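Today's session is about reading a structure prediction critically. Students often jump straight to the picture, but the first step is always the sequence itself: look for stretches that repeat, for charged clusters, for runs of hydrophobic residues. Only then move on to the predicted structure, which in these notes is written as discrete structure tokens rather than atom positions. Here is the chain we will use throughout the hour.
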Amino acid sequence: MSPTVFRENGFRYFFFSREEPRMHVHVYSGDGEAKFWLEPEIELARNYRLSRKQLKIAEKTIEERYDELAEAWKTHFGD
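Below is the predicted structure for this chain, in token form.
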């Protein structure tokens, strides 16, 4: 199961249900995918074919919507 938290700027922001416990988000577009850690700070964990420009857009969105992502993580996985 990989619940979508939201879609913005051509990206899908989502979680994998049975992955590692450290809070993170996956970002997908037709061009590729990336994974960002959300704690202890927002940081690129992996990138698969997204350009630097796309990564900057995704990271900015994550920063702007961090509270929403953190709340969705807690709701989905529990505190």
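Discussion point for the tutorial: The beta strands are 4-8, 11-14, 24-29, 32-37, 43-48.
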